[in-house]
Specification:
By secondary structure, this protein is mainly α. It has a single domain (27-453), classed as Hydantoin permease (Orthogonal Bundle). Helix content is 71%, strand content 0%. It is built from 20 helices and no strands. It has helices at 2-12, 30-41, 44-49, 51-54, 64-92, 96-104, 106-138, 145-161, 163-190, 205-217, 224-227, 233-261, 269-274, 279-289, 291-308, 314-329, 338-362, 382-395, 406-418, 428-453. Helix 7 (106-138) runs antiparallel to helix 15. The chain starts with a helix and ends with a helix.
Length: 454
Amino acid sequence: MHRDQDHGQRKATAEAPLVLDTAPPRPLGFRDQAAFWSNLGVSLLGFSGAIWVLAPSGHAQLSLLAAITATVVGTLFGTAMLAVSGVLGTRTGAPAMAVLRGLFGTRLSYLPTVLNIVQCIGWGVFELTVITMGVEALTDGRGPHWLYIVLAGLLTTALTVWPLGSMRLLRRYVTVAVGVAMLYFSVQLLRQDTPPLTEGSWGGFLPAVDSALAVAVSFVPMAADYTRHSRSTARSFLGTLVGYSTAQIWCYLLGLLALLRVDGDSERIFDTFLGVSAGWLFFAVLVVREVDQSFANVYSTAMSVHNLLPRVDRRVLTVGIGALVTLLATQVDDFSTYESFLYLLGSVFVPMFAVTAVDFFFGSGRHGWDMSQRAPVRWLMLLPWALGFATYQLLNPTQLTGWADAWPRFWLRAQDLTGVHATVWTSASLFSFLVAALVTLALAPVARRRAVAR
């Protein structure tokens, strides 16, 4: 009896390993995963990001019905990818970038690892800046900008030192408070007049789907960092699917309603929430909750670095990365590239997920992936990933500026040479996924033979 109680206590207080090659504890159940992913599905950035669903770049504003439908479709597709990525972490017990050792080999896995480090740091900077914007909205701009960033950075870093404890804390306290705040704002906004559901266009429907999908997919290369601690694949999959999809759809619907109150001006969206009765109180809950976004990005950056430096203490990594993200956030205040950033992430990680999932379930993964430090390089797996990436860019060239102006021009010339041009009913995400998945499936017999030979 006492032995069972001691085991339960140890399980409840278990923490993530300090180095890469330690087996992870698995204390997280369905409620833990659902609460964690639902918190990540709600974001202050998501409220304003709903503008890219309501008015996709280069297209007329969608009707409210079209925007809602695009939100649901894009979120469900993206969350399905996210949930399957989480299953790989639960089955292997490895963090996300270490899982890719099985797909690409250890040394070649460093390529997506570096890309993921860059994107996680970028998201971390975005999130600390958004938290600060939220605090400034609450205080009418009073107080030093840098101080809010530093305080948010310190809280973020503290959470990463005890990641599993932080996830349990989110489930017990934060999720309920966020749910109450979201419900309150939903009631307040729905009580006001809304435009007719069908007033507007359906012309940019699939680009809008791509935008909602890209937000969910941005978490794909970090999903296994958390689901590796799940008790079972069923709890991992369902917790991720239900938690994240419900929260992001709800968040974007609130964002759409709020944007319509300010004529689509995303810079004034916080005014909508603060303008309702007692809105400041519930908005403050959402601002404080935003720290779990920055926590996830800093912690997953550390997990990615672990793939490169497997013996370095993760606490040292998270403290160092938290300090770096905080410093960068004090220097950045421009969100004009947010949409392009999302699409670039989608073009990289949507086809990579397709290759990973197909090879794991139908290719060499059926015989077990080698995820050791000496896993051999699998150059063949670069081919479907590259083809999927090229498909995405052909259909939706990322609009970079400054030193990278040549990038969109290159893909526009490629469109002319290949005769491939996007239409209003073309989805870059879905087409790139299909191309990468089908090419990987075609290569599966070769991949299995090579795996067996090794």
